[in-house]
Amino acid sequence: MVSIHWSIACVAVLGTGYSASAGVVSGSQTFYNMSSSSRTYTYYQYAPVSGDSGGNVMNGSVTTTLTDLNGNGATLSTDPAGDAIYTATINNVAVQTLWNSQFGFTVGQFLSGATVPASFANVPLPSGVPADGNAGVVLRFTLSAGDAVSFAYTFNVVPGPGALALLACAGCATNGRRRKG
């Protein structure tokens, strides 16, 4: 019983440290369409993010595996509105997209196939978008009937060089005090 309480305390501590560092959204999700018609899905995942007001950069990626479960091929595509399949958000504002309008991927009967990963790296945070709040990934897509799709995705906001230098200076000052004491 003590170990259960300790585990919960550890999760709470890690959660606090997580929100105080660069925001990271990462996951792997599988969706099954067991209906008899194509379905459109929207999935959200958020994480707290904290940063200064300038110099932040963003990184993100997405890949997928599509599987035909019913013997008539499988199709993954953008939703009917033409929204991107992957949208990175900060405070519910879209800041970067991947697999934009008219994206599609298919596999044959009883086959599986993986897409080539799509990514962006070191993209400056758009002006006017605060780095504090929440970072998120939104997946919007249409999946053919009787099929499955698995996504692996990431999105993170990295503090700019000024913030990292400040953290390094704080670490050096703390180490110096410990040695003297």
Describe the structure.
There is one protein chain. The chain has 181 residues and is of the alpha+beta class. The chain has one domain: Jelly Rolls (Sandwich), CATH 2.60.120. It has 2 helices and 11 strands. Strand 5 and strand 6 form a beta hairpin. Mean pLDDT is 80; it is low at 1-21.
| CATH domain class name | Mainly Beta
- Total number of domains: 1
N→C terminal distance: 38 Å
Mean pLDDT across all residues, rounded?
Answer: 80
Radius of gyration: 21 Å
The computed structural class is alpha+beta
Largest sheet: 6 strands, antiparallel
CATH architecture title: Sandwich
Strand content: over 45%
Estimate the global geometry from the Cα principal axes: elongated
List its traits.
alpha+beta; 11 strands; Jelly Rolls; five-stranded antiparallel beta sheet; six-stranded antiparallel beta sheet; disordered N terminus; 47% strand; 181 residues
Summarize the structure.
This protein has 181 residues and is α+β, with helices and mostly antiparallel strands. It has helices at residues 2-20, 161-180; strands spanning 24-33, 39-49, 57-68, 74-77, 86-90, 93-98, 104-107, 112-114, 118-124, 133-143, 147-158. The strands form 2 sheets. Strands 2, 4, 5, 6, 7 and 10 form a 6-stranded antiparallel β-sheet that branches. Strands 1, 3, 8, 9 and 11 form a 5-stranded antiparallel β-sheet that branches.
Ordered list of secondary-structure elements with their pairings:
Blueprint (H helix, E strand, L loop, with lengths): L1 H19 L3 E10 L5 E11 L7 E12 L5 E4 L8 E5 L2 E6 L5 E4 L4 E3 L3 E7 L8 E11 L3 E12 L2 H20 L1
Antiparallel strand pairs: 1-11, 2-10, 3-8, 3-9, 3-11, 4-7, 4-10, 5-6, 5-10
